[in-house]
Fold this sequence. Notes:
By secondary structure, this protein is α+β, with helices and mostly antiparallel strands.
Amino acid sequence: MKLTVDALNHLLRQNSWASELLRPHQGRVVRIALPPLAQSLAIDAGGGFTAAPVDALADATISLSPGAAIRHLLQPGSGAGQARLDGDMDLAVTVGKVLQGLVWDVEEDLSHIVGDIPAYQITQAGQRIRRELGHKFESSASMLAEYWLEEAPLIAKGRHLEQFATEVDRLRDDAARLQQRLELLEQKHR
């Protein structure tokens, strides 16, 4: 838990704009859930995070699926809009905006350990790997979607759904007309 708070505060120090957004929410508690993990964080006077007491009630909750989190890591911004916000919307939106906008200056942190030039080279290699993983992920997802649409249909095509809805509407109308005819026939034979 302390590791999470320390990591978030480190990122907040690297992104000074974020603390400015959080400062007005001092003392508020937000629960961040990434199933199966969840953590409650309190906002301190400096616009940073502290671990909230175990019995603290959250003023807002931000829930993100593991899949959306992975998409966001591979392509920042792609997981946006997939978080579920509950409670105080102003607080949840502000914290969500902060968490989504935090950028880790990896090169700066690495330069303290290995020096400036190796840090730059490592960072460049990491960015290439991340881009390649993103392309592989997109390619695999596209391939699976095509397989599920064409070879082993688990996903319905939009045009098939529209056709099905049209046929259901036509069947409903036909059934209504048949019902009316039956009622007319019954009235004639009475």
